[in-house]
Amino acid sequence: MKQKFVRSILSGMLAAAAIAMSSTAYAANYDLTVDYVTIDTGETQTRGIGYNGSSPGPTLRFTKGETATIRVTNNLDQPTSIHWHGIILPYQMDGVPGISFPGIAPGGTFTYQFPVQQSGTYWFHSHSGFQEPDGAYGAILIAPQKREPFKFDREYVVVLKDKHPHSGARILRNLKMMPDYYNRKQRTLSDFIDDVSKNGLTPTLSERGDWGKMRMTPTDIEDVQGFVGLINGKSPRQNWTGLFKPNERVRLRFINASAMTYFDVRIPGLTMTVVQADGNNVQPVKVDEFRISVAETYDVIVQPKEEKAYGIMAQSMGRSGFAFASLAPRVGMRAEIPPRRTDAPLLTMADMGMDHSSMGGSGMDDMSGMDHSTMSEMAGMDHSGMGAPKADPFYASGSGLIPKAVNGGKFLSYSDLKAQKPLYADRPATREIELRLTGNMERYSWSINGIKYEDAEPIRLKYGERVRFKFINETMMSHPMHLHGMWSILDAGKGKWNPVKHTININPGTTVYSETEVDAPGEWAFHCHLTYHMATGMFRKVIVEGGPAVAALKNGSQ
Amino acid sequence: MKIINLIAIGCGVIAPLLSFSLTAKADNPVFYGLQMEQFEYRAGDEGEKLFSWNGGAFIGTDELKLRWQGEGERDINAGINEKLENRLVLQTPVSDFFDVKGGVRLDTPKGTDRWYGTVGITGLAPQWFEVDADLFVSETGDSSARLDIAYEGLITNHLILTPSVELNAAFSDDPEIEVSKGLSNIELGLRLSYDIIDRSISPYIGIVYERKLGNTASLAKDEGADYEATFAVFGLRLMF
């Protein structure tokens, strides 16, 4: 008891010291404990994992140019780790057990220390077991040294999370027993009857037959349904609220910390100006709605003008769940939850990477007349032949996943993203590495080039080269691919203005390219950020050979 | 005695599996699960009261699993096990949608016990038919085969209609267990289930038609025994 008291005084002093030091802007110190916590969504109370006693953990603030020192103490009875998602740092500080470091043993403390070389919105999470879906995540905000190229009067972090009543380990075990364990959006008898009355019996049977032949279903969009969408740890019922004064510019820093769920985000009544993607400034784009893949971040600026509450509505891509929060001029005001969209998407043969004409599926009448011949090589290509509005080239032509804004307005596409200021000089890539995203839904196993992580050789890169990754999605699901330690320059067909990201979403039936300047020696993780895809093998180790000797870093692992 | 043998063989099967799991890389995860497709009370058209089950459990990796499969039928009035089968097999993938399995089966119903060696395949056929096909060779050298097919039809996303068929065939006579060469028995089922807690507990009602075939049926007729029966069934589908 006494000891605990002394410890809390000590940590208080440390925290005070941290504040004092950070005000000089040369160092920022944080102490984080990793704890078992109770996560209360208002509907369910589950035991989870959090930081400093809460999930999500505290928001960590740094300023570019300072040195971050974060002491992490593991109060769990299992090993843990923290990965600083999107942060450029020495690889030993990257926090992936088995690649960057051994992990943090129960009762142990590890001191992370790294120079802060960037600014923007990022996040952190455990890279051990299923601690991240179980609640081990938090936001990181890094202030730039110079003025930002956009103005705002106040800002909020908006962290999205798909909180499931089951633990991560249980979810994966269930998926392994039965891949559609959580899929309650499958087509039923009444869908069959509807389709027969709409399209006739023969086309409907033939269409069902095409899917049945592949043993795939057009409803494999959200593997893990039954979650409650959280914003900053609050369920729609608990209604997180950010205050504003009318006409203020409010910066919202969206982070998708979900395990498995993409969200379509809108704020009815407000136009959002996207100013940052994955921590890097982009040329402002006004949108009515955007889709945020797992692990991505988008910063938007809104200007609510009326003295009323506005709702932040984030409905999942498969429409099985949603998160909701309010922006309000006064405490206690809450926005009405807008009607939920029930237009659950269905995958099409285009999402299977199949040319329509070769399928003979006359049940796909809605797609007839579309040209699928150029499907797999579309990123950055002009689709002027497609008719207005221009189709999003980052979805397969005729894909069932192509989003539309509820109000009929502008929906953000990757092809709208242009870097505000290129981070690297544009130059041709030195070589191309092909990564086919592969998997077997029925076995619930996921892989790259058909090989699971445990059987795969690492990807070897040479320090100083610029590699071009060619992602070919051969599965029917979207995969947010995250390379640790180095930036991924998305080929959006914008040349030197291509946006710089840490997580690149690849939709089914598409091929997407990204380039990486190999400027960080060491060993890194590279994986799909969907928790249960990563856990079952869609993961690679990347070894950067050569380059400056990696200094033996002193760390506080005890 | 047979049970002891089964345990001994079971341990013999588990040992290499465990050593495989332990030598596998630490990140080759081991999963386990228990599924009872049928766990039901059967009320027959001639006043029969039976308790019947059909299920399995597994532990293992993507590459190798140890699976127990159990089937049985207990006559509640007579207090005897009309059917009691336990199988222990090792299972490994051979294609995208199919696994091969091999192991042992022990039948210990009232009457004559039998040992079998077994090989088979299990998986998902096109158009979503769940298929199990097994060959058995008994200790007396008699061989037989079984085909199980089931289909889950979604009335809604929670209300599921499952037709199933089980067909048995023998390649030689084994009079001790009252089986003759040829198709020996068929069981047709139709069960309507509702998922009440996730997929863990799904109560169902249904009907089952069971019939002995060919010479096996004649054998039963000669003895004055039933060769066909229809049941109303009430049960639970379980998955843990």
UniProtKB/TrEMBL annotation, chain B:
Residues 1-26 form the signal peptide. It comes from the Bacteria. Coiled coil: none annotated. GO terms for molecular function: copper ion binding. The keyword Translocase does not apply. It holds the Pfam family CopB. InterPro entries: Cu-R_B_prcur (IPR007939). GO terms for biological process: intracellular copper ion homeostasis. This is Copper resistance protein CopB. Keywords: Signal. One of its GO terms (cellular component) is cell outer membrane.
